[in-house]
Structures
1.
Amino acid sequence: MALAPWVVPKREFGGVGYLLTPFGAVNPQNLELPATLGLGWVGAAFWVWVGLMVAASLTFLLSDPRARSRILYALGVLGVGLFALEAVLFYQAVNSANQAALAGGAPRAPLRRFTLSLGTYLGFFYAVILLLLARLQLPGGKAFLVRYRGAVVPVVSLVLSVLVGALLILVLGRVPGVEGLNLSLKEWIALKLDLITFSFQLLFSPIYTLSGWFNSLQQTTPLIFAGLAVAFAFRAGLFNIGGPGQITLGAIFVMIVGVFMPGPGWIVLPLSILAAALGGALWGGLAGWLKARFGANEVVNTIMLNYIAASVLLFFLASNQQRFFNYTFYLPFKAQGFEAKSLELRPEAQLPLMINLLAPGGEFSWALPMALVAGLVAFFFLRRADLGRRLLLTGGAAILGYAVGGLIPGPAVAGNVMRDLAASKLNGSFLLAVGVLILVHYYLLRTVGGYEMRAAGLAPKAAEYAGINLGRKIVLAMLISGALAGLAATHYVQGGVMDEYRLKQSIPVGVGFDGIAVALMGQNTSLGVALAGFLFGVLRTGGLDLSQQLGISRELVTVIISLVVLAIALGGLLPRYFTDPLKAAQVETEAKDEEEARTKTQRAS
């Protein structure tokens, strides 16, 4: 905290900035700041943090754990409040300086791309650690962490991967604007730490803008489908690594239906979506049948089927003329020209862009929000009904809400907002992904079939002894897993993400492999998959800004994601009771026994 910059009141596009540390400024390009900018509190704030850290350290000299806990809680809350105060003081000072300059006739605000930096962030993280340590001082503290191991392991893994990524930037990153300058060691350290901070700020910058959210959700949508496919198979004790092949078959099926099936949109659109699921289900179910019938390993099967699917795609799109045994056959799928792409899908089979659903004609529409609210309310209040009736009534409520919301006039959307959002290819497949998340969660945790599926995955011998047909469950699990992966094709083919509503040979089916990282990061739960998919979507979107402004390769995102998977595979380098369910249960049982013994002792005294 003493060496790192705390705030950056001004930064140029290329990354050069005016850095303010507790002991002075680091300004390699001699950038000018307004004289009215008041940031003299930075040095005083540093010494307040020093005092807080000394007090926290002395707290551990106390013998009473409850006293330690109370003091640590107080210091942690104080630290969070101090961080909030620093943020308020900084942004108020910058906004006041900008407003004063504009009022004085300046053509534009002098302070741009201003932000908090590593020093203030370290204070916030330290305060959070104090709150965590305060909880650990109380009885059952270790059991508390173990109980939430589903979040602890991925969070720790993400932190480890970020630290390694920061080390890579520290070693390989080039500090902008310092060529030929004679810098002291203190200034060089501050600039390097600022480079790390600014790099990760760029990676997470999409969450600060509406267009960034749209672009991140666009990247997130196929990751949700692929992550759910892998997670569902994992819950059944299987490893589906055939996402690319299943996406490919789903794309072929949706192309055939979307191009050649006549009829109105309310028939063609849902049937083309079902065709995508059917294509993936057939390819995944084939691997499941081979395992159930012959005991063939599903990992090997799905990998081999990926290659076959790629050849099938090439067969459909390479040429419309094929020869077999000296006979020439003509296929109607490939579009004219040299590029390997299909004919364009009929308009009835194309998924609308989200901007057209949310703001058709430039005016905000209440149709979609009311449909979501009506569907969620119906789904919640019908929780005692069977799954089929619940889904039917929920769908009816959503349609009614959509119709009613469409009749309510909405406010006009600003032209610049429409322009930014129209550039995004986020489409209706995102809503499909959200619906699938809810269905998978409900099926696995609220139905008999889902319970049997999880039982077969956790303890196959016990499940078979209880009367569950393992062969059928294997085939069913791979069918559903393949269908989930196949639905990712709707995003690419029906959503026009590849700039056209066509199937192309360049369809990015590699997202099927990315689903493994999403499933592991999300701990094979629907909510976890959604959060992990969004995190990776944000990183992918922010990687473009990182490359444009600092020249750091976007492959840094791939490195971070790969390190997350590696760290999760290693259990986040945490003790075994965070990764072994039996040891976790033992920790929680011991904590419960200690609490009961303590309660009895207190009653006796």
Note: The first helix runs from residue 41 to 59.
2.
Amino acid sequence: MQVDPNPIASGVNHVWVLTVTFLIFFMHAGFAMLEAGQVRSKNVANQLTKNMLTWSVGVLVYFLIGAGISSVVGGSADPFAYVSGGSDSWIGWLFGAVFAMTAATIVSGAVAGRAKLRAYVTYTVLLSAVIYPVVTGVTWAGGFLTEIGPGFQDFAGGMIVHGMGGIAGLTAAWILGPRMDRYDDDDGSVNVIPGHSVTFAVLGTLILCFGWYGFNVGTAASVFVVENGELALAAFADTVGRVALTTTLGMAAGAIGASTVSLIKTEKVDTLYVANGMLAGLVGITSNTNAITWTGALVVGLLAGGQLPVVFEFVERKLKIDDVCAVFPVHGSAGVLGALAFPFFAVPGYEVSFVAQAAGVGVIALWTVAATGFVFGILKLLGQARVSSEHEREGLDITEHGVDTYPEFGGPDVEGTAVRADGSGLRADGAGDLPNAGGIKMVTAVVRPDRLGDVKTALAQVGAPSLTVTNVSGRGSQPAKTGQWRGEEYTVDLHQKVKIECVVADVPADEVVEAIREAADTGEPGDGKIFIIPVEDACQVRTGVRGTEAV
């Protein structure tokens, strides 16, 4: 039986492109976790919100304006044909859109902790509508950079997507200025501000690495082609295997390069540098992965990972730019390195020019700096770029979104009522005397945060469920520790605790103390202390009742 191969080729190619497109979209989960882990706990919801809005706002703008602008810059006669072009055009547009949104979301990590949400969304709109489309217009869409010698070569966006995003993030962070307390006011020395979760950062890294196979391997967009009426392999024939191999080697080498330099600089293998190094290695290989030798992939990956700690320190200490999530050394400088290194490691016979690569890098960098600086500069002049110092201190989760990402006082919800001997009056002890000699006492306990749930339950069981809980930090017998964040050491001598205040009248304070002690005890230094303080009087706000009845 004769079967028309054209529908088969078209169907398989569509399924392939859509599958890798969805894989690239899943990278947004990786960016969200990576960035959330590197910011302080009070800014996590803000970072997650920015990642979701990047996609939601950006993809609409890219559909309505950005993709067309890219085609206009590239010289297309009908730039908005994709809007009504049918299935092929729509799938092609979506494949381009996930690349555009990757470039957009990179910026959010650089400006974390102090950018107004409206400022970030405004920039996302302009990046999706104009800034990124101009870059793709002069490159992938057929613009003038393709006419310099053999043309500027960037297979999957190492410079066009990641390099552009990293440079944009650095520029935005420079315009906004550093976070409060990032640099000492007296001598300008760097103060380390650790992120709240290395776990999240590593999870995000591994999700991004997984999605990157869609980014790189997926760019070999055609599985089948019809030749002389028969099916034949298209880009898969000689491209997809090399891309998969060099992507994997570059990723692994990036981690080795970053960890080696970290070990040399600090005598420790910093976990976050290893994670960031994997991504830097991937960025370095992304522009050249289709036509680079396997040895070249190892060298580029090692260099991209190795430059990470050096460039981050230069940006942080020399330029005094607060790039919170290290987006420039991970995406910017690694993207530049990969694009420029391409001619030196290309497979024999593949034509790529260093002059064309350098011209492309220069044009993209200059355009990105100018456009990003203009947008954030205008926003800064209007007073709309950065949150107030009060809001920054309190955290953007509360001030920008009204949410608390980590309600620290979680644990089981408990209820209880005070136990009274006669059902109405104060409970008497075994000798018939009133508890606390008929007075009011406050029991204040400073304990480990993870014991709070057990303490709440214990207090309810002894009939003292009413309490006030506060997040505190302090030091006592628990020894100080040395922490490390992206290769820099800092002293942790104030330990996180919770302070529990429980005012009792009809419950003996000694019972409350014993309940807290048993529930909070782990047997290790740093379990906390309990204090008992007499209270002169109490007043219930609603009724005005005074004394023990108010308690």
Note: The CA atoms of residues 138 and 144 lie 6 Å apart.
3.
Amino acid sequence: MSARTPVEADVCVIGAGPAGALVADRLADAGRAVVILEAGPRFDPADRLDRMERALRPAYDRPAVWGMGGDRDAHSNSGERPYPLNHARVKAVGGTTLHWQGMVMRLHEDDFRSASARGVGTDWPVSYEDLRPYYAAAESELGVAGADDNPFGPPREKPFPMPAFPPSYSDSLFAEACEELGIAMHSVPNARNSESYDGRGACAGYGTCQPVCPSGAKYDAAVHVKRAEEKGATVIDRAPVRFLEHDADRVTAARYTTPAGETHDQEANAFVLACGGVETPRLLLLSESERYPDGLANSSGFVGTCFMEHLFAGMGGTIEEPTRQNHVGFLTSESHQFYDEADADLAPFKLEFFNYAGPSPVESALSGDDWGDDLLDRLRAESGTHVGIGALVEQLPSEDSYVGLDPHVTDDRGLPVPDVHWSVDDRALRTLERANEVQREILGELGAEITWTVGPENTGPAFHHMGTTRMGEDPEESVVGPTLRTHDLSNCWIAGSSVFPTGGAVNPTLTIAALALKVAESVDASL
């Protein structure tokens, strides 16, 4: 059910991305009265094909495809590295899963015990074994296609819900080179249907997974929002929450603004913040009071601190044979071989073998001004022989990397915008060099002419913001406890990547989903 004004609710979930959607669905299934407040709009699935076509045109950048930008989404960057926040998120029902690539791996066992096993970072207050049943449930909820062929991954308890996508043609070229070098390749778990699943059809191969899946084969969180509504939940979209009303140890209401400029207070017995790694700490900081002068739930001083990303390392070029790129818009093979070699000096990293290296013929055609045979000759010269390898690298949590408020810049509601102060540690920079070395060896074995490199000097984010309301046992060094309830507030939980104490080097959404199921369990038990 959709609404614009407050409703009676047991639970108020703020944010309709994967974390909030899963929490809402589970609690609605348990018979709880749930209301979801979402800052962005609800998009019509019928518009996806038009969005895909716009995404292919040079005039549209990635944020514009899903309506990101302008005063509503203004932000600042005060750190040593600029952070393109609006490339990293979508404000809408479905959240960032509307434009994500859809890879879903479990963190490795040592990711949960970084301080103990690697001598750096911090240990999580939960172990891999603690989270393992939630991982399995999350894979079923999202619909994951995969195979148990990763010899370096953590132990599993049952097969994936769907079979893995077969290796692409260019994967076979990489496989020959990697075999010569003794590097093992394996499949990539994907939250997209390799066969019909959960009422959605199999991947149709549009190749535009980022930023649009027109077929709906790739999971997005609108799936669970719809399910929650069918069980009685209420969704109020275009309702950005500006303040959390509270007393000494409870949140009493979420104050939001409608498109007409009206302000309402949504009351509930329990509140779940699922606004992402930037907007969640921002909301807590905006909710300062005499009781919480440094921001709500911030007696530890850790709200907004330890902002983490996955650093990108990449390399690519061309070889003297067709590689059939841009037929598949996602990864089908990767390697975690170097992941658990991590220690205090080098971070974990994983290798990704691209299926979309070089320009697509459509992008080339739309960006040129030639026609006929000239256009055909250019497309043949520009595409078809490219190869590329990426890598994700962990960065350590640090108080030098944080999300704060910019008192000099305000959004469309007159509120201070988030200031992302992003810095990168030396361990991550060293690991970027190491990843580049491995990539250069593989491309050298392929006989590639290397034409581009992304490494320590020009690295960028993988758009996985994490760590700004960290989980821990000690209330003086963390924001939430092992059940994801805030230490300071008895009826407020946080769901999402902001609770990660460390980031590991795999895509975070499956862990977000697993923790969301854990949050729902905790909230339900408390009511």
Note: The chain has a mean pLDDT of 95.
4.
Amino acid sequence: MLELKRPGLPLTADDEAQGLSYARVLNPMAPLVVVSNGHDVRIIRTHDGGSLDGATLSESQFTGIVTAAARVARADVARAIETLMGTNPTIWRQAVEQVSASVIGELTSTGSDHSLPFESNFLLKRKSTIAVLAHLAAGDRLVLVEGPPLIGKSSVLRELVEKTRDDENFVTLFLEAGGSGVIQSLADAFGRELAWPVTTAEARHWLIQQSNSESAPALVIAVDGFDPGMSDLRKELTDLTSSSFGSKVRVVVSVDDSATDLLTGGANGRSSSPLGRRAKRVPLGHLDDDEFRAAVQNLGNRRIYFMRGANLARELRFPWLLRSMMSDILASPSYNNPEFMAVLPPLLSLGLIGQARMRFRDTELRYLFKELAEAFMDEAWDRKRPSPLILESLGVFLIRRKKLASRLGATQIADLIARGYLRATIHESGEAVVAVRLPELLASELADRVAVELSRRSRTNPSDAAEWLAGAASNIPMGDVICAQAVFDAAMRDDLGLPWELVVALLEDRPARDSLSPGAKLAMFSEETGRVDLDVREDGSIVARAGGRETLIAREDGEDLDTTYSNFHSWLILSHLASIPSGLDIDGEVERIDPIILLEVGSADIVLRQPGPEMQFNSVLSHDVPGAGSIVCHQAGIVEAVTYAMFRYLRREGRNASAWLEEACRRGSLPLVHRSMIALQFLVESGPEDHAAFATEMLDGPVIEAMKRFPTLHPEASSAASSSGS
């Protein structure tokens, strides 16, 4: 072993100790260490650290030295590792970072496998990561990153690894919770990355020494996907955050929020566990406005853009959906062309299911997800489930384990969990559930499942089929998109198409306004507070109760708190149906139905959007026009599926859509004309040159003439324009 120093630098005892440490951890051990600065040379026996004093070695002397080195006790190797690691943190830092990179690499999707949590070219920046770093900087020993399934907890830990890579104060070791344990993983890291034979006991001893070091960086152990049922790992985390270890060892754990209380609570259900007393909790939800803007910028840097209005789409705030929409674009051969750019829709569309069907073609996986779809459909109609689970299942794909066990065997369920397709957890209702980690594939299989039932019902009673379809859309996440896809699937299933009577029945199920009577009781699910109970009072105000607290929502002047909307799911389904050219046999003639649907659904006098658990996304800029209804302000962009369908229709048809636009303007419906105007404005901004010119002609002609028949929506803008013109 040669320990070479810079010329002119004096040799020290530390140089000899470091050379000996390197020599002793080699396998086989190096018998001699030569320490030199180019002028001075020291030769040292590895087995006892003694100097040869420049003596010439005979063959027998050299053999004796090698034999002695081979007989060095294991304790000497352990001391060598301790000496080397203690004097040179760069060595163990490199090993830790290589292990983290290796684990993250194993969890990163390839072009054909999107079941894993990470995408190589995509990482969202989250405020929760900054909060975790702040806790670590403050010296906190244990930080829990908690949130619902598929919200990006794993990515927060991955971002933590990246942010600490060049940080002199922290080194992050990324581990999966289902692995061999923290200490064993550390021992394996040194064995694999540095070829140092280290036992678990030796790794723990080193870690204790390291945790009390004043000069070395802190080791942050990031454990992904911890479940309270992992008792051995729970004990190890309790040990690592105890007084047995110093402050230079810190732990960050990702855990589903529904299981956090089980992790932090005491055995008696009243007090806190040791982990609960030590933990700092960092909540993680959907992307907030700042995070979404950062994500949009991130995608824009990759030539991927959203249409205006995407900031108001609740679904686009979920990391898994953003990733699903862009992953195929990044994998496309066209993306290699530097001139290529992609424009993503501003809301959830049928394209998501189409992408899933192109991407996932494994027969066995499709079979398993068909069974998941069957189990979820059974769940969706089961009103005996705990109400918090029912409410949350309207927005997240959750299935009770006991229900899933009726469709799949224990081995199959365990395999899906092990492969990352399902995440097992305990719901706040106390039910053991699984969260589906490929929602787009489940949505595809649910559409196929709904199509089978829809086809059967349509043959005998189209009106009953339409009512059942609207009910299904209201009971499942992404229900309007799934059920719209089911209509197309059912039409293709029998090669006969769907009866025109089904479309008519959906059209006749018009959205309605209802008034809440005093004394009415309602319930909803909010991601921020969980279940919320609502009571309507005599004066029209509403009392909201959540988390043991009560809030009065008073009626302001002009507000309509007691007005609700119903029967809108049929028209939401039709909105998505109209986004694709389609035809039906009507009285022996095949006619296009998408322009017919657009004329009818486009006249809806309410804002046609799927409601969600956050007020932020239920509120959009709109105009309430007496006698005409509520319409979305053009400044909001495209926030309704029917307006997006109009945009797609006009972009496809170009000047061939002139007759349709003229008919829309003749009908005297402000919502219909206004939605057409928004679609045309987007065509001016993003359509081909000839289509943009056509859109400008229509806006300046029949559309502006039709708008003159209605109240001015932005009188201040009109006044400013008049003043400017004069």
Note: The chain is about 50% helix and 15% strand.
